[in-house]
Amino acid sequence: TSWEDRFHICFSLVQLLHYLAHSPLGSVTLLDFRPRQFVIVDGELKVTDLDDASNEETFCTSNRDCFMEFPARNFTLPCSVDGKCQSMNEKRNLYNAYRFFFTYLLPHSAPSTLKPLLDAVVNATG
């Protein structure tokens, strides 16, 4: 697959992530976020399995309740005044996109002029 095709897949994923973060149902997280849960239809990435999707934000009483642990990095998000971890669904989707897609699809065989930018993006996320 060409780098341009891989970039298009990542761009399509970014559009999907934006939709999930701002959907009519509220922010939706994909709890089973793995490559096998996606297909490409007419050049666009689509989710195939929504059984493990949720629009429930995690409840909290303090920022300690909003701790997210991933293999390479951990995050603590703010607990909002209404007792929900702010943007946890969005952050979970974004980090999983980084883990399973961006790190494999973007850096390899990228145009040399884009490598510094891609390195900055990949290093900032992970």
TrEMBL record:
One of its GO terms (biological process) is skeletal system development. One of its GO terms (cellular component) is extracellular region. It comes from the Eukaryota. GO terms for molecular function: non-membrane spanning protein tyrosine kinase activity. Residues 2-123 form the FAM69 protein-kinase domain. This is FAM69 protein-kinase domain-containing protein. It comes from Micrurus corallinus.
